[in-house]
Amino acid sequence: MSTKHFSLTNKTRGTVPRVPFLAIKNAVLGEAYDLSLALLTAAEATRVTQETKQKDTASNVLSFPLSKTSGEILLCPATARKECAEFSMTPREFLTYLFIHGLLHLRGLDHGATMEREERRVVKQFAPRA
Predict the structure, then answer these.
(1) Which of 42, 79, 126, 127 is most buried, judging by how many CB atoms fall within 10 Å of its CB?
(2) Quick check: 29 and 94 in contact, CB under 8 A?
(3) CA dihedral defined by 91, 47, 103, 5, rounded to 10 degrees?
(4) Tens-digit pLDDT profile for residues 31-66
(5) Domains annotated on the chain, with CATH
(6) Is residue 39 a contact partner of residue 75, using CB atoms and an 8 Å limit?
C-alpha cells in the first residue's frame, strides 16, 4: 500500500491487519507527513532492536524520526500477538495501539501522562471493530 505520503511494506508472511493506518497517521501527524511503515518478522525485529537498542529481543514497535516531516515505524505483529493478552486487547487492537504509540513518539511525545492521554484519545477515535 502506498500513497503520496504513506507507504506500507509487509515483510511477514501474513496478511496486512485491517487497521486504518493511513487515517490514523493523518489524524496524528497530518496528511503532509511522510511515513513509512514496515511490518517485520520477529527475526527482523530482533535484528533491528539489537542494532538500535542493544537488546536481544523483538521490539513490538520502533519509531525513527527522519526529519520534522518524515519518519519510519517498524511493527512486529508476532510480538504484538504474544503481548496483547497482557494488555487485555485483541492482536488487532494491540497493533493499532502500538501504531498510535509509535506515531506519538514521531510527534515528539515521550512516555508519561501526556502521551497516555493522547493514546487513549486516538485509540477511542479509531478503536478496531471486531
Answers:
(1) 79
(2) no
(3) -110
(4) 999 999 999 999 999 999 999 999 999 999 999 999
(5) 2-125 (3.40.390.30)
(6) yes
